[in-house]
Design goal:
single chain; D-Maltodextrin-Binding Protein, domain 2; 2 domains
Protein backbone atom coordinates (compact mmCIF):
# COMPACT_ATOMS: atom_id res chain seq x y z
CA UNK A 1 0.00 0.00 0.00
CA UNK A 2 2.87 2.34 0.81
CA UNK A 3 4.33 1.78 -2.65
CA UNK A 4 1.02 2.67 -4.29
CA UNK A 5 0.82 5.86 -2.21
CA UNK A 6 4.33 6.87 -3.23
CA UNK A 7 3.67 6.38 -6.94
CA UNK A 8 0.25 8.00 -6.56
CA UNK A 9 1.64 11.14 -4.90
CA UNK A 10 4.48 11.47 -7.42
CA UNK A 11 2.19 11.07 -10.45
CA UNK A 12 -0.53 13.35 -9.08
CA UNK A 13 1.88 16.20 -8.29
CA UNK A 14 3.55 15.87 -11.67
CA UNK A 15 0.22 15.88 -13.57
CA UNK A 16 -1.22 18.87 -11.68
CA UNK A 17 1.82 20.98 -12.51
CA UNK A 18 1.71 20.27 -16.22
CA UNK A 19 0.66 23.09 -18.52
CA UNK A 20 -1.73 20.79 -20.38
CA UNK A 21 -3.84 20.28 -17.25
CA UNK A 22 -3.83 23.96 -16.29
CA UNK A 23 -4.62 25.18 -19.81
CA UNK A 24 -7.35 22.58 -20.44
CA UNK A 25 -9.02 23.43 -17.12
CA UNK A 26 -8.85 27.16 -17.79
CA UNK A 27 -10.21 26.81 -21.32
CA UNK A 28 -13.10 24.62 -20.14
CA UNK A 29 -14.11 27.09 -17.42
CA UNK A 30 -13.80 30.06 -19.79
CA UNK A 31 -16.03 28.34 -22.36
CA UNK A 32 -18.67 27.66 -19.68
CA UNK A 33 -18.43 31.28 -18.54
CA UNK A 34 -18.82 32.62 -22.09
CA UNK A 35 -21.80 30.36 -22.80
CA UNK A 36 -23.41 31.49 -19.56
CA UNK A 37 -23.07 35.17 -20.47
CA UNK A 38 -24.41 34.43 -23.95
CA UNK A 39 -27.62 33.22 -22.35
CA UNK A 40 -28.05 36.70 -20.86
CA UNK A 41 -27.67 38.23 -24.30
CA UNK A 42 -30.14 35.80 -25.84
CA UNK A 43 -32.49 36.40 -22.94
CA UNK A 44 -32.33 40.14 -23.59
CA UNK A 45 -32.97 39.45 -27.25
CA UNK A 46 -35.91 37.31 -26.21
CA UNK A 47 -37.35 40.22 -24.22
CA UNK A 48 -37.06 42.45 -27.27
CA UNK A 49 -38.74 39.78 -29.35
CA UNK A 50 -42.13 40.87 -28.00
CA UNK A 51 -41.44 44.28 -29.56
CA UNK A 52 -39.75 42.67 -32.53
CA UNK A 53 -42.03 44.29 -35.08
CA UNK A 54 -41.74 47.82 -33.73
CA UNK A 55 -39.35 50.63 -34.62
CA UNK A 56 -38.30 49.38 -38.06
CA UNK A 57 -38.37 51.02 -41.47
CA UNK A 58 -39.71 48.74 -44.17
CA UNK A 59 -39.82 49.62 -47.85
CA UNK A 60 -42.68 47.76 -49.53
CA UNK A 61 -42.45 47.30 -53.31
CA UNK A 62 -45.43 45.86 -55.18
CA UNK A 63 -45.76 47.83 -58.40
CA UNK A 64 -48.18 45.37 -59.99
CA UNK A 65 -50.40 45.42 -56.87
CA UNK A 66 -50.29 41.63 -56.72
CA UNK A 67 -51.24 41.69 -53.04
CA UNK A 68 -53.87 44.37 -52.54
CA UNK A 69 -53.56 46.04 -49.17
CA UNK A 70 -50.22 44.32 -48.47
CA UNK A 71 -48.55 47.48 -47.15
CA UNK A 72 -51.48 48.21 -44.81
CA UNK A 73 -51.48 44.62 -43.56
CA UNK A 74 -47.76 44.82 -42.73
CA UNK A 75 -48.17 48.21 -41.06
CA UNK A 76 -50.93 46.79 -38.86
CA UNK A 77 -48.96 43.63 -38.05
CA UNK A 78 -45.72 45.49 -37.37
CA UNK A 79 -47.11 47.96 -34.89
CA UNK A 80 -44.83 50.98 -34.53
CA UNK A 81 -42.83 50.33 -37.69
CA UNK A 82 -42.81 52.59 -40.71
CA UNK A 83 -43.99 50.77 -43.83
CA UNK A 84 -43.15 52.94 -46.83
CA UNK A 85 -44.42 52.38 -50.35
CA UNK A 86 -41.34 52.00 -52.53
CA UNK A 87 -40.48 51.46 -56.18
CA UNK A 88 -38.28 48.97 -57.99
CA UNK A 89 -36.33 51.83 -59.58
CA UNK A 90 -35.06 52.88 -56.15
CA UNK A 91 -34.21 49.36 -54.99
CA UNK A 92 -30.44 50.01 -55.12
CA UNK A 93 -30.92 53.08 -52.97
CA UNK A 94 -32.90 51.03 -50.45
CA UNK A 95 -30.18 48.37 -50.35
CA UNK A 96 -27.58 51.05 -49.62
CA UNK A 97 -29.64 52.23 -46.66
CA UNK A 98 -30.09 48.64 -45.49
CA UNK A 99 -26.30 48.19 -45.49
CA UNK A 100 -25.54 51.43 -43.65
CA UNK A 101 -28.48 51.90 -41.27
CA UNK A 102 -29.86 49.64 -38.56
CA UNK A 103 -33.47 48.51 -38.65
CA UNK A 104 -34.02 49.13 -42.36
CA UNK A 105 -35.49 46.38 -44.56
CA UNK A 106 -37.26 45.97 -47.86
CA UNK A 107 -39.95 43.61 -49.15
CA UNK A 108 -40.45 43.19 -52.88
CA UNK A 109 -43.43 41.38 -54.39
CA UNK A 110 -43.02 40.11 -57.95
CA UNK A 111 -44.90 37.59 -60.07
CA UNK A 112 -43.62 34.06 -60.46
CA UNK A 113 -45.58 31.22 -62.04
CA UNK A 114 -48.73 33.31 -61.94
CA UNK A 115 -48.54 33.95 -58.19
CA UNK A 116 -46.99 36.63 -55.98
CA UNK A 117 -43.37 35.90 -55.02
CA UNK A 118 -42.04 37.60 -51.88
CA UNK A 119 -38.40 38.69 -51.47
CA UNK A 120 -37.32 39.96 -48.03
CA UNK A 121 -34.12 42.04 -48.14
CA UNK A 122 -31.96 42.59 -45.06
CA UNK A 123 -28.29 43.29 -44.33
CA UNK A 124 -27.28 39.79 -43.22
CA UNK A 125 -28.62 36.75 -41.39
CA UNK A 126 -27.60 38.18 -38.00
CA UNK A 127 -29.81 41.27 -38.41
CA UNK A 128 -32.52 39.64 -40.48
CA UNK A 129 -36.21 40.25 -39.99
CA UNK A 130 -38.50 37.21 -39.78
CA UNK A 131 -39.08 35.90 -43.31
CA UNK A 132 -41.76 33.57 -42.01
CA UNK A 133 -43.74 36.33 -40.32
CA UNK A 134 -43.62 38.67 -43.33
CA UNK A 135 -44.65 35.83 -45.64
CA UNK A 136 -47.45 34.75 -43.29
CA UNK A 137 -48.95 38.27 -43.14
CA UNK A 138 -48.82 38.80 -46.90
CA UNK A 139 -50.04 35.26 -47.65
CA UNK A 140 -53.10 35.74 -45.45
CA UNK A 141 -53.81 39.08 -47.12
CA UNK A 142 -53.51 37.53 -50.58
CA UNK A 143 -55.74 34.60 -49.60
CA UNK A 144 -58.33 36.93 -48.06
CA UNK A 145 -58.45 38.99 -51.29
CA UNK A 146 -58.97 35.83 -53.34
CA UNK A 147 -61.76 34.66 -51.03
CA UNK A 148 -63.54 37.99 -51.33
CA UNK A 149 -63.43 37.66 -55.10
CA UNK A 150 -65.20 34.32 -54.71
CA UNK A 151 -67.93 35.98 -52.67
CA UNK A 152 -66.98 34.98 -49.12
CA UNK A 153 -67.68 37.48 -46.35
CA UNK A 154 -65.15 38.63 -43.76
CA UNK A 155 -66.51 36.24 -41.12
CA UNK A 156 -65.97 33.22 -43.37
CA UNK A 157 -62.51 34.47 -44.32
CA UNK A 158 -61.54 34.94 -40.66
CA UNK A 159 -62.78 31.42 -39.89
CA UNK A 160 -60.82 29.96 -42.81
CA UNK A 161 -57.63 31.63 -41.59
CA UNK A 162 -58.04 30.62 -37.97
CA UNK A 163 -54.99 28.86 -36.53
CA UNK A 164 -55.83 26.25 -33.95
CA UNK A 165 -53.89 26.30 -30.69
CA UNK A 166 -52.09 23.18 -29.60
CA UNK A 167 -49.83 21.72 -26.97
CA UNK A 168 -47.49 18.73 -27.01
CA UNK A 169 -47.61 16.09 -24.32
CA UNK A 170 -44.99 13.37 -23.82
CA UNK A 171 -45.30 10.15 -21.89
CA UNK A 172 -41.54 9.65 -21.46
CA UNK A 173 -39.12 11.54 -19.22
CA UNK A 174 -36.99 13.02 -22.01
CA UNK A 175 -37.20 16.75 -22.71
CA UNK A 176 -35.03 19.21 -24.58
CA UNK A 177 -33.04 20.07 -21.43
CA UNK A 178 -32.31 16.44 -20.66
CA UNK A 179 -31.57 15.64 -24.30
CA UNK A 180 -28.95 18.37 -24.69
CA UNK A 181 -27.52 17.83 -21.20
CA UNK A 182 -27.26 14.09 -21.90
CA UNK A 183 -25.36 14.68 -25.15
CA UNK A 184 -22.96 17.17 -23.55
CA UNK A 185 -22.42 14.93 -20.55
CA UNK A 186 -21.73 11.87 -22.70
CA UNK A 187 -19.17 13.77 -24.76
CA UNK A 188 -17.57 15.23 -21.64
CA UNK A 189 -17.20 11.78 -20.09
CA UNK A 190 -15.74 10.37 -23.30
CA UNK A 191 -13.14 13.11 -23.65
CA UNK A 192 -12.27 12.92 -19.94
CA UNK A 193 -11.77 9.13 -20.10
CA UNK A 194 -9.80 9.44 -23.31
CA UNK A 195 -7.67 12.37 -22.12
CA UNK A 196 -6.74 10.93 -18.72
CA UNK A 197 -6.24 7.43 -20.11
CA UNK A 198 -3.84 8.94 -22.61
CA UNK A 199 -2.19 10.78 -19.71
CA UNK A 200 -1.48 7.45 -17.99
CA UNK A 201 0.12 6.05 -21.14
CA UNK A 202 2.17 9.21 -21.70
CA UNK A 203 3.38 9.27 -18.09
CA UNK A 204 4.55 5.66 -18.23
CA UNK A 205 6.15 6.03 -21.66
CA UNK A 206 7.94 9.22 -20.63
CA UNK A 207 9.33 7.71 -17.44
CA UNK A 208 10.34 4.58 -19.29
CA UNK A 209 12.22 6.42 -22.06
CA UNK A 210 13.89 8.76 -19.54
CA UNK A 211 14.93 5.75 -17.42
CA UNK A 212 13.04 7.10 -14.41
CA UNK A 213 11.06 3.86 -14.51
CA UNK A 214 14.17 1.94 -13.48
CA UNK A 215 14.31 3.97 -10.27
CA UNK A 216 10.61 3.48 -9.64
CA UNK A 217 10.84 -0.27 -10.16
CA UNK A 218 13.56 -0.48 -7.51
CA UNK A 219 11.28 1.14 -4.92
CA UNK A 220 7.95 -0.33 -6.04
CA UNK A 221 6.65 -3.40 -7.84
CA UNK A 222 5.46 -2.86 -11.43
CA UNK A 223 1.91 -3.76 -10.44
CA UNK A 224 1.95 -1.11 -7.70
CA UNK A 225 3.27 1.45 -10.19
CA UNK A 226 0.44 0.65 -12.59
CA UNK A 227 -2.22 0.95 -9.89
CA UNK A 228 -0.71 4.10 -8.39
CA UNK A 229 -0.52 5.90 -11.73
CA UNK A 230 -4.06 4.93 -12.71
CA UNK A 231 -5.40 6.08 -9.34
CA UNK A 232 -3.54 9.40 -9.53
CA UNK A 233 -4.73 10.29 -13.02
CA UNK A 234 -8.19 9.03 -12.14
CA UNK A 235 -8.44 11.33 -9.11
CA UNK A 236 -7.14 14.23 -11.17
CA UNK A 237 -9.76 13.54 -13.83
CA UNK A 238 -12.50 13.16 -11.22
CA UNK A 239 -11.59 16.46 -9.58
CA UNK A 240 -11.53 18.27 -12.92
CA UNK A 241 -14.78 16.62 -14.02
CA UNK A 242 -16.54 17.42 -10.73
CA UNK A 243 -15.10 20.94 -10.74
CA UNK A 244 -16.41 21.54 -14.25
CA UNK A 245 -19.91 20.38 -13.28
CA UNK A 246 -19.83 22.46 -10.07
CA UNK A 247 -18.69 25.56 -11.95
CA UNK A 248 -21.44 25.07 -14.53
CA UNK A 249 -24.00 24.77 -11.72
CA UNK A 250 -22.65 27.96 -10.13
CA UNK A 251 -22.90 29.84 -13.44
CA UNK A 252 -26.45 28.59 -13.81
CA UNK A 253 -27.40 30.06 -10.44
CA UNK A 254 -25.46 33.33 -10.65
CA UNK A 255 -25.27 34.28 -14.34
CA UNK A 256 -27.97 32.53 -16.35
CA UNK A 257 -31.32 34.40 -16.12
CA UNK A 258 -34.20 32.67 -14.41
CA UNK A 259 -36.41 33.17 -17.47
CA UNK A 260 -33.91 31.69 -19.91
CA UNK A 261 -35.44 29.02 -22.13
CA UNK A 262 -33.83 26.42 -24.35
CA UNK A 263 -35.68 26.03 -27.66
CA UNK A 264 -38.84 27.22 -25.96
CA UNK A 265 -38.47 25.07 -22.83
CA UNK A 266 -37.42 26.64 -19.49
CA UNK A 267 -33.87 25.69 -18.52
CA UNK A 268 -34.05 23.00 -15.85
CA UNK A 269 -31.68 20.54 -14.19
CA UNK A 270 -34.31 18.58 -12.32
CA UNK A 271 -33.01 15.36 -13.90
CA UNK A 272 -29.74 15.71 -11.94
CA UNK A 273 -30.98 14.01 -8.82
CA UNK A 274 -28.50 12.92 -6.11
CA UNK A 275 -28.93 9.31 -7.25
CA UNK A 276 -28.22 10.23 -10.87
CA UNK A 277 -25.13 12.25 -9.90
CA UNK A 278 -23.71 9.37 -7.83
CA UNK A 279 -24.27 6.93 -10.69
CA UNK A 280 -22.71 9.36 -13.16
CA UNK A 281 -19.58 9.62 -11.03
CA UNK A 282 -19.51 5.85 -10.60
CA UNK A 283 -19.69 5.21 -14.34
CA UNK A 284 -17.03 7.82 -14.96
CA UNK A 285 -14.71 6.13 -12.45
CA UNK A 286 -15.38 2.63 -13.79
CA UNK A 287 -15.09 3.71 -17.42
CA UNK A 288 -11.83 5.48 -16.70
CA UNK A 289 -10.46 2.47 -14.80
CA UNK A 290 -11.25 0.14 -17.70
CA UNK A 291 -9.50 2.25 -20.32
CA UNK A 292 -6.69 3.47 -18.04
CA UNK A 293 -5.20 0.02 -17.53
CA UNK A 294 -5.34 -0.63 -21.27
CA UNK A 295 -3.57 2.66 -21.93
CA UNK A 296 -0.99 1.88 -19.26
CA UNK A 297 0.00 -1.33 -21.03
CA UNK A 298 0.36 0.56 -24.32
CA UNK A 299 2.69 3.01 -22.61
CA UNK A 300 4.78 0.16 -21.20
CA UNK A 301 5.14 -1.55 -24.60
CA UNK A 302 7.06 1.29 -26.24
CA UNK A 303 10.68 2.33 -25.82
CA UNK A 304 10.33 5.68 -27.61
CA UNK A 305 7.69 8.38 -27.20
CA UNK A 306 7.35 8.49 -30.99
CA UNK A 307 5.92 4.97 -30.94
CA UNK A 308 3.24 5.70 -28.35
CA UNK A 309 0.48 6.82 -30.73
CA UNK A 310 0.84 3.74 -32.91
CA UNK A 311 0.81 1.53 -29.80
CA UNK A 312 -2.37 3.24 -28.61
CA UNK A 313 -4.25 2.79 -31.89
CA UNK A 314 -6.06 -0.45 -30.84
CA UNK A 315 -7.31 1.19 -27.63
CA UNK A 316 -8.26 4.39 -29.49
CA UNK A 317 -10.27 2.44 -32.06
CA UNK A 318 -11.92 0.41 -29.32
CA UNK A 319 -12.89 3.56 -27.38
CA UNK A 320 -14.19 5.35 -30.49
CA UNK A 321 -16.28 2.39 -31.66
CA UNK A 322 -17.65 1.90 -28.14
CA UNK A 323 -18.41 5.61 -27.81
CA UNK A 324 -20.36 5.77 -31.06
CA UNK A 325 -22.17 2.55 -30.22
CA UNK A 326 -23.29 3.89 -26.85
CA UNK A 327 -23.93 7.43 -28.03
CA UNK A 328 -25.98 6.58 -31.12
CA UNK A 329 -28.14 3.96 -29.41
CA UNK A 330 -28.77 6.31 -26.49
CA UNK A 331 -29.61 9.41 -28.52
CA UNK A 332 -31.78 7.52 -31.00
CA UNK A 333 -33.81 5.96 -28.19
CA UNK A 334 -33.36 2.52 -29.71
CA UNK A 335 -34.55 -0.46 -27.67
CA UNK A 336 -33.38 -3.21 -30.01
CA UNK A 337 -30.59 -5.76 -29.78
CA UNK A 338 -27.88 -3.21 -30.51
CA UNK A 339 -29.07 -1.01 -27.65
CA UNK A 340 -28.95 -3.97 -25.24
CA UNK A 341 -25.43 -4.79 -26.39
CA UNK A 342 -24.37 -1.18 -25.78
CA UNK A 343 -26.05 -1.23 -22.36
CA UNK A 344 -24.27 -4.33 -21.09
CA UNK A 345 -20.99 -4.23 -23.02
CA UNK A 346 -18.42 -2.89 -20.52
CA UNK A 347 -16.59 -0.84 -23.15
CA UNK A 348 -19.70 1.07 -24.30
CA UNK A 349 -21.90 1.25 -21.18
CA UNK A 350 -19.97 4.24 -19.67
CA UNK A 351 -20.92 6.20 -22.81
CA UNK A 352 -24.56 5.11 -22.95
CA UNK A 353 -25.75 5.05 -19.34
CA UNK A 354 -25.08 8.76 -18.58
CA UNK A 355 -27.62 9.79 -21.23
CA UNK A 356 -30.12 7.26 -19.86
CA UNK A 357 -29.59 8.49 -16.29
CA UNK A 358 -30.57 12.02 -17.29
CA UNK A 359 -33.45 11.09 -19.60
CA UNK A 360 -34.84 7.90 -18.05
CA UNK A 361 -35.52 4.71 -19.97
CA UNK A 362 -33.68 2.29 -17.69
CA UNK A 363 -34.48 0.01 -14.79
CA UNK A 364 -32.60 -0.64 -11.56
CA UNK A 365 -31.88 -4.22 -12.63
CA UNK A 366 -30.35 -3.05 -15.91
CA UNK A 367 -28.06 -0.62 -14.08
CA UNK A 368 -27.08 -3.31 -11.55
CA UNK A 369 -26.23 -5.85 -14.26
CA UNK A 370 -24.32 -3.23 -16.25
CA UNK A 371 -22.23 -2.19 -13.23
CA UNK A 372 -21.56 -5.80 -12.27
CA UNK A 373 -20.33 -6.66 -15.77
CA UNK A 374 -18.21 -3.53 -15.81
CA UNK A 375 -16.59 -4.31 -12.45
CA UNK A 376 -15.88 -7.93 -13.40
CA UNK A 377 -14.38 -6.81 -16.71
CA UNK A 378 -12.16 -4.29 -14.94
CA UNK A 379 -10.86 -6.93 -12.53
CA UNK A 380 -10.13 -9.44 -15.30
CA UNK A 381 -8.56 -6.91 -17.64
CA UNK A 382 -6.54 -5.34 -14.81
CA UNK A 383 -5.13 -8.75 -13.86
CA UNK A 384 -4.08 -9.43 -17.45
CA UNK A 385 -2.72 -5.91 -17.93
CA UNK A 386 -0.66 -6.09 -14.74
CA UNK A 387 1.04 -9.23 -16.04
CA UNK A 388 1.70 -7.68 -19.42
CA UNK A 389 2.87 -4.44 -17.81
CA UNK A 390 5.23 -6.23 -15.41
CA UNK A 391 6.75 -8.22 -18.26
CA UNK A 392 7.26 -5.28 -20.60
CA UNK A 393 7.88 -2.18 -18.50
CA UNK A 394 11.67 -2.68 -18.42
CA UNK A 395 11.97 -3.93 -21.97
CA UNK A 396 13.91 -1.61 -24.29
CA UNK A 397 14.57 -1.80 -27.97
CA UNK A 398 12.07 -2.93 -30.60
CA UNK A 399 8.44 -2.55 -29.53
CA UNK A 400 7.07 -5.84 -28.29
CA UNK A 401 4.05 -7.49 -29.81
CA UNK A 402 1.48 -8.96 -27.46
CA UNK A 403 1.64 -12.32 -29.22
CA UNK A 404 5.40 -12.56 -28.75
CA UNK A 405 5.11 -11.34 -25.19
CA UNK A 406 2.55 -14.03 -24.42
CA UNK A 407 4.77 -16.77 -25.89
CA UNK A 408 7.97 -15.71 -24.14
CA UNK A 409 7.06 -14.13 -20.81
CA UNK A 410 3.42 -14.77 -19.99
Amino acid sequence: MKQIKTVFAFTFRDAVRKKAFIISTAITLIIILILSFLTRLSSSSGDEETEYYGGYTLYYIDESNLIKGGADALAAAMNGSAVIQGSAAQLDEYKEKINTENGVYAVQVTEQNGQPFITVISKDFMSSISYDYITEVLSKTYTANAMREYGLDDKAIALAQTELRYTAEFTGEMNINGYIAGILLTMLIFFAIYYYGYGVAMSIATEKTSRVMETLVVSAKPSRILIGKCLAMGLLGLLQFAGTIAFAALCKEVIIPDNFSLLGAPLSFDAFTPEAILLLLLYFILGYALYAVLNAVCGALVSKIEDLNSALMPVIFLSLISFYLGYITAVSGSEGTLAKVALYLPFSSPFMIPFKLINGGYTASQIAISIALLVVSILVITYICIRVYSASVLHYGKRQKLVDLYKTKL
